[in-house]
């Protein structure tokens, strides 16, 4: 049984990338989109979520861009912080 399911992490990154890409005025230099895409690709390389999402959480440009998104239920910052803590599985 694999406890490290990447589905939720990939879903968060995919939705974030899509929302940033849809709003061309926010990330004009493509810095955040490129970082999100690189993070998505590194998930398959078995890097830890703590490392990958910690990079996103600690990057001021990423957090600023997320706060500028004008969407309902913008909880990307919370999701990134949650995944940066290494919470990769649920206890039943």
How would you describe the overall organization of this protein?
By secondary structure, this protein is an all-alpha fold. It has helices at residues 7-22, 31-43, 49-58, 60-68, 76-84. Helix 1 (7-22) packs antiparallel against helix 2 (31-43), helix 2 packs antiparallel against helix 3 and helix 3 crosses helix 5. The longest helix has 16 residues, at 7-22. The radius of gyration is 13 Å and the shape is globular. The protein starts with 6 loop residues before the first helix and ends in an 8-residue tail after the last helix. The mean pLDDT is 85.
Write the layout of secondary structure elements.
Blueprint: H1 7-22, H2 31-43, H3 49-58, H4 60-68, H5 76-84
Helix pairs in contact: 1-2, 2-3, 3-5
Brief overview, please?
With 92 residues, the chain is mainly alpha-helical. 62% of the residues lie in helices and 0% in strands.
């Amino acid at each position: 049984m694999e406890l490290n399911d990447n589905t939720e992490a990939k879903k968060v990154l995919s939705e974030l990338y899509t929302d940033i890409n849809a709003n061309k005025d926010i990330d004009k230099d493509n810095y955040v989109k490129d970082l999100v895409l690189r993070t998505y690709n590194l998930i398959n390389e078995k890097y830890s979520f703590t490392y990958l999402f910690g990079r996103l959480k600690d990057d001021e440009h990423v957090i600023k861009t997320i706060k500028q998104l004008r969407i309902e239920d913008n909880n990307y910052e919370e999701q990134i912080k949650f995944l940066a803590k290494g919470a990769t599985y649920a206890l039943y």
